[in-house]
Amino acid sequence: MSLPAANLDPTFRITRSSHVVLSVKDLAASKQFYGEVLGLILTAEDDSTLYFRGVEEACHHSLVLRKGSKPACARIGMRMFTETDLDKGKAYFAAQGCETAWVDVAHQGRTLHVTDPVGTPLEFCATMPVQPRMITQFRALRGGCALRLDHYQILTPEVRKAAEFYMGMGFRLTEYIAPAGTFDLRGVFLQRKGNPHDIVFFNGTGPRLHHFAFLAPEVHHLLHACDVAGELGYGFDVERGPGRHGPGHALFVYFRDPDGHRVELFNTHYQVMDIENEPAGWDPADHKVSFPWGMPARESWYLEATDFEGADVREPRVKPTPLTLEKFLPQRTAGN
Amino acid sequence: MSLPAANLDPTFRITRSSHVVLSVKDLAASKQFYGEVLGLILTAEDDSTLYFRGVEEACHHSLVLRKGSKPACARIGMRMFTETDLDKGKAYFAAQGCETAWVDVAHQGRTLHVTDPVGTPLEFCATMPVQPRMITQFRALRGGCALRLDHYQILTPEVRKAAEFYMGMGFRLTEYIAPAGTFDLRGVFLQRKGNPHDIVFFNGTGPRLHHFAFLAPEVHHLLHACDVAGELGYGFDVERGPGRHGPGHALFVYFRDPDGHRVELFNTHYQVMDIENEPAGWDPADHKVSFPWGMPARESWYLEATDFEGADVREPRVKPTPLTLEKFLPQRTAGN
Amino acid sequence: MSLPAANLDPTFRITRSSHVVLSVKDLAASKQFYGEVLGLILTAEDDSTLYFRGVEEACHHSLVLRKGSKPACARIGMRMFTETDLDKGKAYFAAQGCETAWVDVAHQGRTLHVTDPVGTPLEFCATMPVQPRMITQFRALRGGCALRLDHYQILTPEVRKAAEFYMGMGFRLTEYIAPAGTFDLRGVFLQRKGNPHDIVFFNGTGPRLHHFAFLAPEVHHLLHACDVAGELGYGFDVERGPGRHGPGHALFVYFRDPDGHRVELFNTHYQVMDIENEPAGWDPADHKVSFPWGMPARESWYLEATDFEGADVREPRVKPTPLTLEKFLPQRTAGN
Amino acid sequence: MSLPAANLDPTFRITRSSHVVLSVKDLAASKQFYGEVLGLILTAEDDSTLYFRGVEEACHHSLVLRKGSKPACARIGMRMFTETDLDKGKAYFAAQGCETAWVDVAHQGRTLHVTDPVGTPLEFCATMPVQPRMITQFRALRGGCALRLDHYQILTPEVRKAAEFYMGMGFRLTEYIAPAGTFDLRGVFLQRKGNPHDIVFFNGTGPRLHHFAFLAPEVHHLLHACDVAGELGYGFDVERGPGRHGPGHALFVYFRDPDGHRVELFNTHYQVMDIENEPAGWDPADHKVSFPWGMPARESWYLEATDFEGADVREPRVKPTPLTLEKFLPQRTAGN
Questions:
Q1: Are D228 and B36 in contact (CB < 8 Å)?
Q2: Complex ipTM
Q3: How far apart are CA D79 and CA D85, in angstroms?
Q4: C1 in contact with D, Cβ within 8 Å
Q5: Which among A236, A266, A306, A326 is the top mutation candidate for probing chain D, defined by the most D β-carbons within 10 Å of its own β-carbon?
Q6: Strand partners, D254
Q7: Is B45 helix (H, G, I), strand (E, B) or coil?
Q8: Please, which residues 230-249 of chain B have a Cβ atom closer than 8 Å to chain D?
Q9: How many CB atoms lie within 10 A of CB D126?
Q10: Percent helix, strand and coil across chain B, each rounded to 5?
Q11: Which contiguous run of DSSP H or E holds residue B91?
Q12: How does pLDDT run across C213-264, given as a tens digit for each residue?
């Protein structure tokens, strides 16, 4: 087995991950959490929906929160470059045997619903109403000053299948996780926009949304987000970090929102555009890559995730056996 | 007159600005300056040439310094996505009446030389030998921790002509400068890689290289670069900043290197990918955009630039009349 | 001539610089400037007075702004350790021939007015009503997040006389400015609280208040203060910096407030407590110390200052001849 | 019971915590750890001893590492202001029934050994040979850029007795920990130098040295120290943090050095000088103060500490029952 190959000449152009649609139980709590802790800008709201965008985003929304009876993710969204790309994409997805449908979605251009081969519900559009970028409205900056949506991480029992599908339509593989010396893929980092990932698939019970991630400007913004979280009573919901990712080198912090949805805030990413950039592989057992310093993530970080509405969830063939904090603590005495 | 239109379906794919080739008089001085102040990584050197790359770059070089009798810029480099794009690009440039030539360049794949219609000497390649990204080699980080080459700024008497040429091959206009209510272009910010600029053209005596720019991770890296510059005796060569760019909101500092070449170090950039993002225009007389706080740039920043080897330099039709620091000081009493 | 000697066993204990009392013409403008740009906390206000304190300060005020017909400084304040120290201080000052008076001042304990031998109007108290420290109220942080008042700088024609007086009552000299090889004092940095200065005297027309200074936590807070200043229309009032102080190594920015009063925001200070720490001298002509990188301060920074109410201002014997930005620009071509 | 009272007029003047003397098994490992991770400056070394100082310190050493067969702390050091204070201090300690002795110590002025009433071995001196402050030698900065020694934390079964002794000689209490509504002291923060602590005593098996702490300039320095620790193979020795202290608001990270000695790196501290500043009390069971966000410290952080050479260690009357990470994890599901 080898790594799947990326199609360098796809017939349609996906440009980036763009927006996530979640159900939440209490709009007021979510409004405070995303506005104050993450620092997102509220573009619009009504009785049942909140539309947030990042501080630098000119698009109408990158996070849609709908009042619902239980937490779930309705869809994750991506952008196509032009309307023509949307049409070509629809044809391509249909040829691949995916369910597709044109739908009307508020505050978005013509929108295409697609379910990918591992069951992830996607939606694509080429435009949204333009909003002012708020990045030079310095007094409007709050909490983590989340700049823009960057990527999603999905749990799936079918990592290779996901990689093949996404790479077949032009996504490139930047990093992958597999036991040393093998291509038995346990995690794949896939991108269209020229940085390490737009969408990541990890081996696990799924399809489920592990997290979505916003970029923050600097390290101190991550810490300010934690401080505001603590001040507002969300101190226990700083689930992991601040810490350092391994090969990607970003600093991160993971929060659980009031419904348990996980959102990552992280800083700077490297650029991956050149054709000679080979994917970087790492062994899941190599803790120097997984957590270069400090302690591993707690079990909840590995196992808990958000269900997709209506998706059938299946168990993976190989059960993940991460070194969780719960396993680590009894094994390891600090300072010895 | 209106803004030129971007070709959204170019026949070949330029991906990004990639490397600049300069002549310098004293390799040892340049080696210290770029290694210690900017924090670039030295990939290779011989008696006549230094090859530097940014801390996160996997490409062989983004800055090439050749020993020469006088300071000049030989070429600015860009990447094509694949070898096929290079071939298609050559045909396109030839059809546009540009001089083109295949050349052998050390440490680069097949390389195409092209002179653009305003006289800028370009070179394109699709690959370079891969080098390790150094971003997690924390003890190797120095000075400004320059991550990667981001963009060039060129002075030219023919701003509109440049904009039309680059937009015709797929560059998109993110910002432009023109007197209020007009499209009399005095500056254009053009991009391929999804952030505000790969190449910028400003009205002025040219073609000349005004500056090239590296991205730094955080604000404190910019300040550390200044501190190291001062420590090494380059304190007067901190020509402008640290300061805040207007619409682009980046923090910047401009250095003059030991030969007078100007290099910018700046932090975070916004993302520009969506088709509905219209170019943002601003009036050159609007100082709140040009310098949101502090004082304007000194005259040298506006007028001095690096000659391109062998290029004929011409004067602009409309002479720039920026509000220089020299004009500003007598006009304005602080605190009044 | 030599340096004055510090009295290591003064009969009373001054602990620190504590508060400054200014006249301002427009309380609303000042309220916005100090609250939004500096980030001070408003403790109390009435029709004629604003009381501000730093984000971490537990004292009632460190900045008092009184509505007045013209900008001036009424007094600069210092703390004595105990009420007993206040009494001993009064006796000491009287024996030195200084005017002294007990006065009632709102929101302060028993207060002693003293005019020092170079004409600076001082006030001393030992207590103020306690206020909550706001440093962990993260959502209340604004602009430069000014933590606490740190020091004053005074212009005077009598630098040595000032040094002798303050050192005679226990202030220690940390740095001084004098032409190389001499003790012809042009500037003295004097401290009680264990960092480089509580009060600084510089040679110039005086007594006048050159600036007062607040400590900020980190570099990015200084820049955020500048950004907010620009957003609020105070962009021209960022008079100097951000830049690096020489021996003290702090990063600084100087603002002119809406009345032209100058306030410095700076970060980290070194500790000076040990008896073996000798004063560090530097030559006013040594630009590597005065401005380690970038350009010198503009003339206004050197010459303009706030009058003390009712003080007679005199010219210095040796007129200062600093290398101002106005002199520097024609002399020096950047990059050469 | 009430809080002990501070003596505001002590007969001698201790100025600050100044240096710690440790035994280590491998000088080379310690040299790398403190030089590269903490960023301390090596003042001097010989076959059996390393002398380090902080980046801004002008004193000869703040950390002395002696080769020994097992890890231990020989003494913690404090400064007296003058030689006269040393003499008065000796008389005072003798009158209190403490063992005292004059000793010769390399690179220190006249040195007084004293054992405090809870068994902590102290040493006092008034001077050390002066070294250059390195804070403006920007290229010499490494890792966490540790500026200066700030404080010690000691475990003792006799917290109140320690508080009474130190407050009796002029230390002031800034914060204390006691069950709500009581003065049953479980922790006391005591200071001489005007910030929250020079020495802290916590209830526990002791006397033992829990940690010593260095101040770092900014948050990013703490993270860089962690990154360098990870790079050098000390990733597991980042025992706690980065995190936020409660009332003191500092950001912290705790490392275990190669011998298991614990060293804290933290940023900004508030100033405590005014007589009206009352001690702030907090309940050990109030987790919002103990860890405002994230997870509690692991058990090792609470229980493990460095023995003092020759000291008899005793158990506390009330065994500490902190909410350790080990207890916390099973109790608490993140996101719920």
A1: no
A2: 0.95
A3: 10
A4: no
A5: A236
A6: D240, D264
A7: strand
A8: 231
A9: 24
A10: 20, 30, 45
A11: helix B83-95
A12: 999 999 999 999 999 999 999 999 999 999 999 776 799 999 999 999 999 9
- Smallest CA–CA distance from C139 into chain A, residue: A228
Amino acid at D209: L
Residues contacting residue C81 through CB under 8 Å, at least 6 positions apart: C13, C14, C15, C126, D8, D275
- Report yes or no: B138 at the D interface, CB cutoff 8 Å: yes
- Cβ-based contacts of B226 with chain C (< 8 Å): 244, 293-294
The strand pairing partners of B280, in sequence order, are B175
8 Å CB contact of D139 and B224: no
Q: How many helices (H) and strands (E) does chain D have?
A: 7, 18
pLDDT in tens, chain A (336 residues): 899 999 999 999 999 999 999 999 999 999 999 999 999 999 999 999 999 999 999 999 999 999 999 999 999 999 999 999 999 999 999 999 999 999 999 999 999 999 999 999 999 999 999 999 999 999 999 999 999 999 999 999 999 999 999 999 999 999 999 999 999 999 999 999 999 999 999 999 999 999 999 999 999 999 999 999 999 999 999 999 999 998 767 999 999 999 999 999 999 789 999 999 999 999 988 888 888 999 999 999 999 999 999 999 999 999 999 999 999 999 866 444
Three-state DSSP at B224 gives helix
> For C60, phi and psi rounded to 5 degrees?
-65, -40
Confidence of residue D247 (pLDDT cuts 50, 70, 90): confident
Are B174 and B246 in contact, with CB atoms under 8 Å apart? no
Closest CA to B81 of B157, B181, B192: B192
Q: What is the number of residues in chain D?
A: 336
Contact B130 A58 (CB under 8 A): no
* C-alpha distance from residue D149 to each of C215, C312, D263 (Å): 20, 45, 10
Helices A219-231 and D219-231, axial angle in degrees (round to 10): 110
Distance CA A321, CA A319 (A): 6
CB contact under 8 A, C56 and D274: no
d(CA A251, CA A253): 7
On whether the CB atoms of residues A256 and A209 are closer than 8 A, the answer is no
Query: What's at A289, amino acid-wise?
Result: V
Q: B219: nearest CA in chain D?
A: D220
Chain-chain contact of C137 with A224 (C-beta, under 8 angstroms): no
Give the number of C-alpha atoms closer than 13 A to the C-alpha of residue A303, restricted to the C-beta side: 13
Which of B226, B227, B292 is nearest residue C230 as measured by Cβ atoms?
Answer: B292
Residues of A in contact with C145 (CB under 8 A): none
Nearest to C292 among B235, B262, B300 (CB): B235
Asked if D66 contacts D48 with a C-beta cutoff of 8 angstroms, the reply is: yes
What's the gap in Å between the CA of A231 and the closest CA on chain C?
7
Question: How far, rounded to the nearest angstrom, does the alpha carbon of residue C196 sit from its chain's CA centroid?
Answer: 12
For chain D, report the end-to-end CA distance as a whole number of angstroms. Answer: 41
Quick one: DSSP state of residue D300? H
User: Torsion angle of alpha carbons C288, C294, C300, C305, nearest 10°?
Assistant: -60
Both tokens of B307, joined, read 């000659």
Average pLDDT over residues B303-309: 97
Residue C178: strand pairing partners? none
Yes or no: say if A46 and A33 are a contact pair by the CB < 8 Å rule.
no
- Please state the three-class secondary structure of A73-118 as a single string: EEEEEEEECCHHHHHHHHHHHHHCCCCEEEECCCCCCCEEEEECCC
pTM above 0.80, yes or no: yes
D250 contacts on C by Cβ (under 8 Å) = none
How many other CB atoms are there within 10 angstroms of residue B200's CB atom? 24
Write the residue in B138, B142, B231 that is nearest to D228 by C-beta: B138
Q: Which residue has the tokens 């696990």?
A: A204
Tokens standing for residue A333:
């005495």
With a CB cutoff of 8 Å and minimum separation 6, the contacts of C140 are: C41, C55, C134
